[in-house]
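Friendly challenge for the regulars: who can give me the structure tokens for this chain first? No prize, just bragging rights.
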Amino acid sequence: MEKFSGLRANRQSLEVANAVGKDLFPGHLGIRFTNMDPAHVEAEFKITPAHMAPNGFLHGASVVALADTIAGFANVLNLPDGASGFTTIELKTNYLGTAREGLVKGVASPVHLGKSTQVWDVRVFRAQDDKTIALFRCTNMILWPKE
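First reply, four minutes later:
Bragging rights claimed.
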């Protein structure tokens, strides 16, 4: 959670959010945040060959990586005071479409913001025509410091 400390202090900073993941997995996939409102977090990536499956379509793991990254950052923005972090305890993805090129976007909305869990929905879609690629839901457990 140390990497997230700047984000928690400056909750709506796109610069901070994009810097946090730059050298980590999100950065390697080209994920870029475009909105950091705690109730509405958005990010995107431009499809490259690295996002593709051998069958020529967008790899499902690329979609989950985008959605899970967005939900994780949204979770950090909404951690209760005193919480030390979070961990994902469940995630589910329904694939409804695909893409071969262009920009893939995701938008997270909170379903439940509790003291012990948070639940986030993320809609992943093609930017060029707003067609839904996947619906993603994850449940995160809030971590508290040990006394």
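The mean pLDDT is 92. The helical segments are 5-9, 14-21, 25-28, 60-77. Your move, everyone else.
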